[in-house]
Amino acid sequence: MSPKLPVNNAQTITEFLNLHKAQTSEEESIDSYKFAFDDEAFLSRRETIGIRFELELLKPEILLKEHGIEHTITVFGSTRFVSRESAEALVREAKTPAEKAEAEIALIHSQYYESAREFGSLVASYNKTQKEDANKLHICTGGGPGIMEAANRGAFECGDQTIGFNISLPREQYPNPYISPGLSFRFHYFALRKMHFMLRARAIVAYPGGFGSFDELFEVLTLIQTKKVVGIPVILVGKSFWHEMVNFKEMVRFGVIDEDDMHIIHFVETAQEAWKLIQDWYQLA
Asked: Which tens digit of pLDDT belongs to each residue from 12-30?
């Protein structure tokens, strides 16, 4: 039996755009004569992946600079949490035992949504006291629902600029409505999106979440541990969740991280605690 090793283990951009080989072969002059920068089929070829990387790095960089965005606070967390208002509506409308149980869980988890919303508001309120862009910190999220929506919403409701770095997914994730005009971006490559999460980040605030939140969190911790980036506060909101999901102390005891590595992480319960930690770190007024 012949081995069935994949040629490529990534979803290519041609697959994502559903382009067929006939569309990328450019055998007709009408196709080959196009400007390279105006030729979607050519830009979607495997050979141009480096150009696409560069474009995904460059586009947000230029636009954020034009909007005066120099510093951000990146907020991670579950896409599945809803506001207290929405959770209470679910409780009222639940009919079956399964629906009632699901609604009660949503109501419990809504505390994290409201906390992230409050955190966004605290950051935005600070920005109102600052005249210089160089002194402002802007909420930056993955642009989707749940905790991302909540943090964007808190800042948006205070009239502040707020940023969303969305990602193309098999089940498409649409930008939440609380991202400022001109500051909603869409990425195909997780690597470039995560790079932008970090480039201007002056703090990371992580709420309870799933695989995506853990992926982003541990990448940040690794970058700081290996001194690839300057140390910034990494704040985990919800002590019981984080202590139960990740036994950091056991990692130290087992010898896979050092005791000093624990100084990277700060555990808090509330939005106010998270913001106070950032204020103290940077000596903000």
From this structure: 666 667 666 655 566 666 7
The C-alpha atoms of residue 141 and residue 152 are separated, in whole angstroms, by: 7
Chain segment 32-73, per-residue pLDDT in tens? 888 988 888 888 888 899 999 999 999 999 999 999 999 999
Question: Are 79 and 216 contacting, i.e. CB atoms less than 8 angstroms apart?
Answer: no
Q: How many CB atoms lie within 10 A of CB 60?
A: 22
What Rg do the C-alpha atoms of the chain give, in angstroms? Answer: 22
Dihedral, CA of residue 74, residue 80, residue 83 and residue 86, to nearest 10: 160
In sequence order, which residues have a C-beta less than 8 Å from that of residue 155 and are 6 or more positions away?
120, 121, 123, 124, 138, 139, 161, 162, 178
Domains and CATH numbers, the chain: 13-44 (no CATH), 58-282 (3.40.50.450)
In angstroms, the CA 161 to CA 64 distance is 11
What does 170-233 look like in DSSP terms, one character per residue?
SSPPPPPTTSPTT-EEEES-HHHHHHHHHHTEEEEEE-S--HHHHHHHHHHHHHHHTTSS----
**What global pTM score does this model have?**
0.90
